[in-house]
Design goal:
- The complex is a heterodimer of chains A (236) and B (295).
- With 236 residues, chain A is of the alpha/beta class.
- Chain A has a domain of 116 residues: 3-Layer(aba) Sandwich (Rossmann fold), CATH 3.40.50.300.
- Helix content of chain A is 37%, strand content 28%.
- In chain A, helix 3 packs parallel to helix 6.
- The longest helix of chain A is centred in the C-terminal third of the chain and has 16 residues.
- Chain A is globular and about 45 Å long.
- With 295 residues, chain B is mainly α.
- Chain B has 11 helices and 4 strands, in the order ααααβββααααβααα.
- In chain B, strand 2 and strand 3 form a beta hairpin.
- In chain B, helix 1 runs antiparallel to helix 10 and helix 6 crosses helix 8.
- The chains are: A alpha/beta (236), B mainly alpha (295).
- Chains A and B meet through helix 2 and helix 3 of A and helix 6 and helix 7 of B.
Chain lengths: 236, 295
């Protein structure tokens, strides 16, 4: 049974159709990669899933609940967190305040404290810089903060949009290691990436997106060896 | 000694009127920060507050303290209603449409007051009956004491509220990035409603203090303090809460000093010149941050 199921989804920006009937599913425990070039519609899909955009057609089911028209602020308490493209941390607030906002919908102080401990353990640099304003962090640290902030809601599924964008190769490796360990700790991951090589290396399955349509899908390792994928996305 | 006393007296005058500007400016700046709009009807909430107080005290004969509380509650509700009816449907419209709507709401409120209360000024005695005190030959009026004390309390309370409470943090988050705030589970519409309620409640307090000072009601009484407070908010840096406090007080002091020592007629011109000079030197206002539009 799929944890997240998107069926025949179409999204328009005004008269321009950005997503042209996309269907995919994410099963519990999987890492699913959505890969594709810039402008293929990857971010739009994530925005539609978490309610920042409403699809004009199709449906989105999360744990058998129809969330197609659920507004964004009600999504996180269902157990779904979204790490947006470009990190979008609250730069005027401290690292600690950012993390606390991640747990905005939770009320049990003890549980929040436990999750905070867990996040600090996973990202020791965030603990070192807890009182620093988020805007003064480096790009890699901001990405860690955005991920930590999402984890603060204790999600069952986490959606990540271009987590490696603009980071140095060493940091990219670090971020992908973290994604893998988040997955191993039991959180399902839906990953949107332009770095197809890295994404396919850690994903279980992947969907390839081209101008608003899924053109290929399947086992990540098989896709990695597919000649057309190699040519178009892996630069080989 | 006489000169020093006179300067001190003018300083207190400036602080008193500046406190009122600051309270109004806080409403402009908070709404701008959260909803990214200039609520030009904000000044008229002062007028609504003044008339509401008049209705409660002089017509319904409610005692002063409950009348003040009722007035504040009435204005807060009014602010929420205006936002829901007039601004919310325009959440994704062009900024110009929202601005024009705000001006429309301003005229609506003024003309409603004109319809109900007519154009003839209504005399209204101050409800603040605190005796004045004498310190070293300087007389400080009860009204000044109450105005300064109330403003100081509100500023401290608001600062604590925004920086220490969950709702305050939600407001800061929404003012920086609405989309990211929604992803945290923050209800943006509710946060905007709360902001309008707080802004309008502060305008009600300003209206009460203002009417106790001028003791006469006309439907356009909110226009001048409204526009000056807007100038104060821009001077301090629109969107910044400490900026609005500082801008309001600074404007009051500049105005009162120019009236006393330069020219009564020119005092407004001097106030607006200061704004022009500050904006030329620092376009984001004195305590405002230079915001970079993210694409």
């Amino acid at each position: 049974m799929a944890m997240l199921e998107v069926k025949d989804m179409e999204v328009y920006y005004g008269v321009i159709q950005a997503i042209k009937g996309v269907s995919f599913q994410v099963n519990e425990g999987e890492i699913i990669a959505l890969i594709g070039a810039n402008g293929a519609g990857k971010t739009t899909i994530l925005h539609a899933v978490t309610g920042l955009l409403t699809p004009q057609k199709g449906s989105i089911l999360f744990e058998d609940k129809d969330i197609t028209k659920t507004p964004a602020h009600k999504i996180v308490s269902l157990g779904m967190a979204h790490v947006p493209e470009g990190r979008r941390v609250f730069s005027e607030l401290s690292v600690y305040q950012n993390l606390k906002l991640g747990a905005y919908t939770r009320s049990d102080k003890g549980e929040i404290e436990q999750t905070l401990e867990m996040v600090y353990k996973r990202f020791p640099r965030l603990e070192e810089r807890r009182n620093q304003l988020a805007g003064t962090l480096s790009g890699g640290e901001q990405q860690m903060l955005a991920m930590g902030r999402a984890l603060m809601s204790d999600p069952r599924i986490i959606l990540m949009d271009e987590p490696s964008m603009g980071l140095s190769p060493i940091l990219v490796n670090e971020i992908f290691d973290i994604i893998q360990s988040v997955s191993e700790a039991g959180t399902t991951v839906l990953l949107v990436e332009q770095n197809a090589k890295k994404a396919l290396a850690i994903a279980d399955r992947a969907y390839v997106l081209e101008t608003g349509k899924i053109v290929m899908s399947g086992d990540a390792k098989e896709l990695m060896n597919d000649d057309s994928i190699k040519k178009a996305y892996l630069g080989e | 000694m006489a000169l020093l006393n006179s300067i001190l007296a003018q300083l207190l005058n400036g602080l008193r009127i500046g406190s009122i500007y600051a309270l109004i400016a806080l409403g402009y700046t908070m709404v701008y920060g959260i909803a990214k709009m200039i609520n030009f009807a904000h000044g008229d909430i002062i007028m609504v507050g003044a008339y509401a107080l008049y209705v409660f005290v002089s017509i319904l004969h409610v005692p002063a303290v409950p009348a003040v509380i009722l007035t504040i509650a009435f204005c807060a509700l009014m602010g929420i209603t205006i936002e829901k009816v007039a601004y919310k449907p325009l959440r994704n419209a062009q900024r110009l449409a929202v601005l024009i709507t705000a001006i429309g709401v301003s005229y609506l409120l003024q003309n409603l007051a004109l319809l109900i209360f007519k154009a003839t000024p209504i005399p209204f005695g101050s409800i603040i009956k605190v005796p004045s005190i004498q310190i070293a030959g300087l007389t400080i009026s009860g009204l000044t004491i109450v105005t300064l004390a109330v403003t100081a309390l509100i500023m401290a309370g608001l600062t604590l509220f925004v920086n220490k409470t969950k709702i305050g943090h939600a407001m800061l988050a929404v003012s920086e990035d609405q989309g990211a705030a929604e992803l945290m589970g923050i209800n943006v519409n509710r946060t905007i409603s709360i902001t309008f309620a707080i802004g309008s409640a502060l305008a009600a307090v300003a209206g009460i203090l203002y009417i106790c000072q001028y003791e006469s009601l006309i439907p356009t009484l909110g226009a001048i303090p409204g526009i000056k407070a807007f100038v104060a908010a821009v001077l301090g840096g629109i969107g910044s809460i400490p900026g609005a406090m500082f801008g309001g007080l600074a404007l009051g002091i500049i105005e009162s000093m120019s009236k006393a020592y330069i020219s009564t007629q020119l005092s407004d011109a001097i106030v607006f010149s200061v704004l022009v000079i500050v904006l030329l030197l620092k376009p984001s206002g004195i305590l405002g941050k230079l915001s970079v539009e993210k694409v």
